[in-house]
Amino acid sequence: MYTETTHDYIVVGAGSAGCVLANRLSASGRHSVLVLEAGGTDLTPYVQLPIGYGKTYYDERVNWKYLTEPEKQLNGRQSYWPRGKVLGGSSSINAMVYVRGHNRDYQEWGAAADGWGWSDVEPVFKRMESWRGELDERRGTTGPLPVTDISSMAHPLCNAYLEAAEQLQIPFNKDYNAGVMEGASHYQITTDKGFRASSARAYLRPAMRRSNVTIRTKAHVRRIHLSNMKASGVEYAINGEVRIARARADIVLCAGAVNTPQLLQLSGIGPRGVLSAAGVELLHELPSVGRHLSDHLGADIVCRTSVPTLNQQLGTWSGKVQAALQFAAGGRGPLSMSLNQAGGFVRTHKDSQGPDLQLYFSPVSYTRAPPGTRPLISPDPFPGFLIGFNPCKPTSQGSVHIRCSDPQRAPLIQPNYLDTEHDRALMMAGMQLMRELTAAPAFQSIIEAEVYPGDSVQSDEQIMQFIKDNSWTVFHPCCTCRMGTDPTSSVVDSKLRVHGIEALRVADASVFPTIPTGNTNAPSIMVGERASDLILQDAP
Ligand SMILES: Cc1cc2nc3c(=O)[nH]c(=O)nc-3n(C[C@H](O)[C@H](O)[C@H](O)COP(=O)(O)OP(=O)(O)OC[C@H]3O[C@@H](n4cnc5c(N)ncnc54)[C@H](O)[C@@H]3O)c2cc1C
Q: 185: how many CB neighbours lie within 10 A of its CB?
């Protein structure tokens, strides 16, 4: 009835982590690897050019375009969650900021699971990077993932931000990925000669040339088949046909923090109540599948300036032509950059163990329109910039649960943003810091007005109301199949094996034991690297 194929390994999802596995597991030539990806090709200008971010943000050809449930603390708003549905996954549509994370993140990981402490993961970060910046023994220079130092190319307005930070005693930090994270910095970004360096470009494309790698795009995995508590096959839909693939060794789920728990639940692995409500037969009870969802929530301020910003360049035809010429002349200029060109990490509370706020500075201001109402993130018509923040280690936790047994139906996402006093207090501290920064002399000389939230928002109540009405995801969902030793409070063990199921592993942002201090692409790629080592150690 079904077409069946057999491979040594099956990787479900060619995202940040999945592309790494496709490469590393096939590198020796001894193992055959099948990669199943629900999305299509990444060879489109909007994915390859960093500036395409504004386009892919709402583009259903490359994006799952999820919506959360209405959030109580966000005044009943639903949060729009873009996730990559394309080769490279979310690394093909993200803002490219490259952050390894803080030592304490990996102390937490190491406490949850053996082999994931800072001393275990630091060499992995080093081997995966190809750092194009000032040489430092703590940075890797020969890995597959290009990381660009944009300090010499950043918009001049970033200097006003760095100066304002300095005026607030936030010192300049040249490299937040080399030891000390705190301070104000230019961001490092995953680009290669001006093009986006997604995980697909860095890892998958070299693997595609190998005869032992098979990649199926537009292949939507529906569920994992189990027999005697062993993963026996993957059921997927492609071109209107349902097929089965079998693995001699492991099936590795790399479908991301939303779709991996969804797939486990659709396969009968998860919390009893959720599966029973969805009409899915419980085959293996694992209460934490889809629980402990963590994400960064951010807010920002828009200021109008007396000096031109990128709004003028990106908002006019002559500016666009100039930007195209800059790109053509050597992969430089705004087309080759992230919107977030500077930022940093600060500690605002004396009891915090490390930085508690991450900062972002964009020399362009824009409005995120709700999906469907406008196709692009468009620059504002006036000269302006955007400055924002998010708490680094939010303590609110949510869930991802299936609604029914239909694999095509999006799961129910409940982030529970701002559920804890800790998170609400840090959002207030963040807004206060934004206002202190924009009041610093370096900014005051160029700011004409705070456009958003504006002068009318002053009291604590008004600021909290603004946060509830306007805060947004920073796109870092994780921890929904977290690592740990206890099968009631975690989903995979320290070797990323699903508790109680043979031959089934998970490797993506869902296995993070705790949310990292910074952005999540680098840690996801690191998980893909570590997963490959662990799987190959056990290779038959
Ligand atoms: C808009 C945006 C901006 C971001 N900006 C940054 C940033 O600047 N810096 C940073 O570090 N991080 C950023 N992130 C976050 C970062 O990109 C993610 O944390 C990271 O890519 C997650 O990697 P992953 O491997 O867990 O999942 P993903 O990369 O999302 O990969 C999952 C893959 O699995 C596929 N898949 C899912 N379900 C199925 C199925 N049923 N069958 C087959 N395939 C399936 C998906 O299509 C996808 O390709 C951003 C994310 C977004 C969306």
A: 25
